[in-house]
Amino acid sequence: MGALIVNLGYFVAAIVFIYALKSMSHPSTARKGIHCAGIAMILAVVITLFHPDIVHKSYFTNIILIVIAIAIGFFIAKRSALKVEMTDMPQMIAIYNGVGGGAAAIIGAIALLQVGSPDTAYNSRVLLLAALGGFIGAVSFTGSVVAWAKLDGRMKSTIRFKNRNLVNLFIFLFSLLLAILLAAESEPHYFMLFMFFALTLALGALIAIPIGGADMPVIISLFNALTGIAVAFEGIALDNGGLIIAGTVVGAAGTLLTLLMAKAMNRSINNVLFSNFGEENSESTEVEGSMTETDAANAAMTMAYADRVIIVPGYGLAAAQAQHKVAELVKILETRGVDVRFAIHPVAGRMPGHMNVLLAESGIPYESIFDLDEINGEFKDTDAVLVIGANDVVNPVARIDKSSPIYGMPILNADQAKQVFVIKRGQGAGFSGIENHLFYLDNTDMVYGDAQKVVNEMITTLKSL
Asked: What is the tens place of the pLDDT at every residue in 85-134?
């Protein structure tokens, strides 16, 4: 009866998790979704306290350990969540995802260490699932840590070496063989276990280290999916319905998001993982023309007398924390009768939804924010486009130059507008290392400087008109 009640509780928690995930699909209900997910997690933790394996085996000790773990996790999570800037949210999510993968790896290691124990009844099939969960979790852990280091600026460059794909394949196959051997052992084999996790941890890092910066959104989603799969495997091994359901939901959501991100870049997962995309100097064609510079006042006056303006935000907006100034700029333009809209590319910023969160934080109405498919046809009828810190997502070579590494990637058609203003710190290439040909077009003017400072100058100009 106890197991039935626990599984029923996990089922209720899973329903709330799914409802929360559905709520997060739209900005207007995302906050409610986050709250529901927190409630579901609390419910799952409370239910776990009554799990038969905990109740019947050193219950008091288990409760003490669980409470200590929750207290440590709560302290770290609250402290980091209160301190993190919105611009640093992608790397925070990456490291939190890595923690989930690391937890799955530890669960697998503990299960494999209990082989032959009279208190356990693990068979080889269960142990194999535990080993596979540990395998995937370890890969996700170190891969996510590398992704965090790159996003946080702690790892500046990609590292590629000859025959790296063959090396990774060998480590993968050898680790898989060790997983099978560990599952077949009748007692713990400590050296083999050490080798298994050393190799899987190394594999995660080796997969992520060569990945170029432009592919980070896809990689974060991929490791998120791997963490979910690892947790589901461990749930099956431990006969824990909560882990099975939660891991399956996370794995499915992460997989779908990974595929959507890859599609948005016109890339395959194989190409992301095994190609050299994002490597510096990957540009194969020369840029024609020259950049034309203007100032913030001229750009502001052009937008003030326009009928329609589209703003394209990118990571530069987040880095400068200019979202609130942009919201003020929009209000002034709208009071002058200008139709202002925002165009969001699926991979704008450092992770999916990054720009949407920033704009929502500054109070931009949801109905003013449009995805690529919704707004792309409107650029040709737009008087002025303001690009703030975006680069690769508005690069027209993706549409016209078959020799470009990003050819075929869906982009925002900013170049089709009558006038384009680009706010950019300097003349460097984008996150992918590819020069943006938009900057050299006759209808594009560059406004150099910090995004917040430039937008503030635009606001000052508009107020003086």
From this structure: 767 777 888 888 899 999 999 999 988 887 756 555 567 778 888 999 99
Give the least confident one: 38-42, 189-193, 267-271, 377-381: 267-271
pTM over 0.90: no
Q: Confirm whether 392 is a catalytic residue.
A: yes
- Angstrom distances, CA of residue 30 to CA of 27, 148, 313, 353, 357: 5, 24, 20, 11, 10
Domain match, 265 and 307 both = no
Instruction: Classify residue 291: in a domain, yes or no.
Output: no
Do 45 and 152 share a domain, yes or no? yes
Model confidence band, residue 1 (pLDDT cutoffs 50, 70, 90): very low
pLDDT digits (tens, 9 = 90+) for 38-66: 999 889 888 888 877 777 667 778 888 88
Burial 125-136 (b: 16+ CB within 10 A, else e): ebbbbbbbbbbb
Percent of the chain, pLDDT > 70?
89
**Is 360 inside a domain boundary?**
yes
Q: List the one residue out of 138, 129, 99, 137 whose CA is nearest residue 111.
A: 129
3 state DSSP class of 212: coil
Are 113 and 185 spatial neighbours (Cβ–Cβ below 8 Å)?
A: no
Written as six digits, the tokens of 259 are: 């595929």
Q: How many domains does the chain have?
A: 2
* 40 is a domain residue: yes
CATH number for the domain harbouring residue 429? 3.40.50.1220
What is the 8-class DSSP label of residue 87? G
Q: Assess whether 386 and 269 both reside in one domain.
A: no
Residue 300 shares a structural domain with residue 195 = no
Rounded Cα distance, 266 and 169, in Å: 25
Residue of 215, 392, 415, 445 marked catalytic: 392
- If asked whether residues 352 and 248 sit together in one domain, one would say no
What is the residue range of 161's domain? 2-274
- For residues 160 and 261, state if they share a domain: yes
What's the confidence (pLDDT) of residue 280?
Answer: 44
Give DSSP secondary structure letters for 383-394.
Answer: SEEEEES--GGG
Q: What is the pLDDT of residues 452-464, one digit of tens each?
A: 999 999 999 999 9
Q: Cβ atoms within 10 A of the Cβ of 367, count?
A: 8
Contact 200, 154 (CB under 8 A): no
